[in-house]
Structure formats: structure tokens, C-alpha cells
Amino acid sequence: MKISDVIKILIKGFWENGLISLLKVVFAHWIITFIIIGIISFLCSNPDTSVAAWIIIGIFAIFTAIKALFEIIIEIKNYINTTDPEDKKNILKSIGGKIFDFSICLIGVLQVLKIFSHISRITKASSSVISFVDDTASAVSKLLKDITK
């Protein structure tokens, strides 16, 4: 099998076993999907639960990405051991779907890292503001102490 054929089958699997499969599941279970999206949106927008929600999303995304990576490795071993051309095509389509799963999870992990880096910047900025206020209060206190002498 030529490289161009392998790439075409992987792309076909990416769309058929990845995106289209995901859309079929969402459309088949649209009520549950909207409830879950609503709960996640609420938890991520609520200041009391947002950090915990993002941590849970990050852990789930990392776990699922690792799982997809292991499944890709297993499918590659199956591809190497298989001699039937039709089975090889089906395995390549499956690998394409797993690549889609991995890429979606990777996007989730990057989004969580983006949120936490933003939180880190806000924390650093708040720390700088508090330090500035403390230094200003100290300078004013020293000035008042010198004036009252």
C-alpha cells in the first residue's frame, strides 16, 4: 500500500470514525449532551467551582488522551501483524478515528493550561498590586511618622 493511500484512508477514518461518529452520538443523545454542556458551563462560570471544574476537565482530558494514544499504538501493532488488505484499511480507519479522539483531548488539555496560565497571571498581578499597596502604605506611614515628630 502506497503512502498516499495510507494518508487518504487515515483522513477518511479521521472524519468517519472521528467527527461523524461524534456527531452521531451527540444527535442520538442530544438531551444528555445539552444537560452535560449546561452543567459544565455553569460550573466553569461560577467563581466558587470554576477551578475545580477546570481541574476535573483537565484530568479527564489527559486520561482520555493517554487512552487514545495507547489505542493508536495497539492499532499500529495490529496493522503491522495483519496481512489482509481489507483488514488493513479498516485498521487504518480506526487509527484515523483514534487520532481525532487524541486531537480533541489535546485541545482540551491546551484549553485547561490556557485557563490556568491566565489564573497564574491574575494571581501574579494581584500579588504585585498588593505589594504596591503595602509599599505605599508603608511610605505614607513613615511620612506621617516623620511629620508628627
Structure report:
The protein has helices at 3-28, 30-45, 50-81, 85-148. It has 149 residues and is an all-alpha fold.
Summarize this structure briefly:
Helices cover 93% and strands 0% of the residues.
Tally of separate helices: 4
Instruction: Output the helix-strand order.
Output: HHHH
Largest sheet: none
Structural class: mainly alpha
Strand fraction? under 5%
Helix content estimate: over 70%
Identify the overall geometry. Answer: elongated
Oligomer: single chain
The low-pLDDT segments are none
- As a whole number of angstroms, the C-alpha radius of gyration is 26 Å
Count of strand segments: 0
Q: Mean pLDDT, nearest integer?
A: 85
Task: State the separation between the terminal residues, measured CA to CA.
Answer: 92 Å
Topology at a glance:
Elements (H helix, E strand, L loop, with lengths): L2 H26 L1 H16 L4 H32 L3 H64 L1
Helix pairs in contact: 1-4, 2-3, 3-4
Notable traits:
mainly alpha; 0% strand; 149 residues; 93% helix
